[in-house]
Amino acid sequence: MLTVLSLALAALGGCGPKRPNATRVARALEVTTGDRELDRDLARLRSMQITVNESEREYLEILAALATRLSPTQDAELAALSNAVRRAADELHGRGKALMLELDVSGAEAVARDGDARTGCDQFAQPANVHRCQGELSTIVRVVFHERAVSSAEDAQEVDVEVRSLPASSEAFATATATAVAELAALRIRLGAVSEAAEPLRDRLRAARTAPRFERELREAIEFLEGVAARARVTRRQVTTAAESLANSAQRAAR
């Protein structure tokens, strides 16, 4: 499905949720109870913890990588990056060209939803695949900035045209921004998958029974799952804002 970038989320009220202490699952790569089904669920929990706990770092790394691609001296803060992209888009417009975005996240969403062992997006089955999934999803997301000719008086956003019929831009700032938007979209999809998986996993763990020595771990796991969906939504909103800001700046929509 081809869409214009529209990743806005419903506003979240109140303060962000308190970050719970790391459970034993978060501190150790494996916790083995001897119950095969429970151990599979604890592995999923571990994958979800890695995804959410490291999402802020991944977000900042995406912005830092974009800054490096734009200029060796570029500030990696979002507002500074958006301004730099906007200046480049304005300069391009002064040369008679404007960018239009092609975004297709449908393939990546399907992989995250249905699972695909080839990409490491295995519905959180294996903690070792978490970072691999991010990289693979970002290549599946299709983000391309296409160029079209404009007059100096023309508004680049009010044009009825088939985007894919236009040539892809080879401008360095456009390709760098497209890469960052794809990576942000992939992170957003993964955080959404955490939110969707948290409640069913929590309910299964609530119903689980285990040896007394693992009861504390089970309680901590359930406590983590009671707050992780809200944490994922907060970070997802931050990621969404960044993707929208960069994409709109490249298209000169945000002034």
Uncertain segments:
1-29
- Read across the widest sheet, the strand sequence of neighbours is 1-2
Q: What is the number of helices? A: 8
Give the strand content.
5-15%
Q: The biggest beta sheet, please?
A: 2 strands, antiparallel
The chain-level mean pLDDT equals 85
> SS-based structural class?
mainly alpha
- Computed CA radius of gyration, to the nearest angstrom: 21 Å
> What is the 3D shape?
elongated
> What is the helix fraction of residues, given as a range?
55-70%
Extended strand count? 2
> Kindly, what is the distance between the CA atoms of the first and last residues, rounded to a whole number of angstroms?
28 Å
The succession of helices and strands, N to C, reads HHHHEHHEHH
Give an overview of the whole structure.
- The protein has 255 residues and is mainly α.
- It has 8 helices and 2 strands; from the N terminus they run H-H-H-H-E-H-H-E-H-H.
- The protein has helices at 24-27, 36-53, 55-70, 78-94, 106-114, 130-140, 172-207, 215-250, and strands at residues 97-104, 142-149.
- Strands 1-2 form a two-stranded antiparallel sheet.
- Helix 2 packs antiparallel against helix 7 (172-207) and helix 2 (36-53) runs parallel beside helix 8.
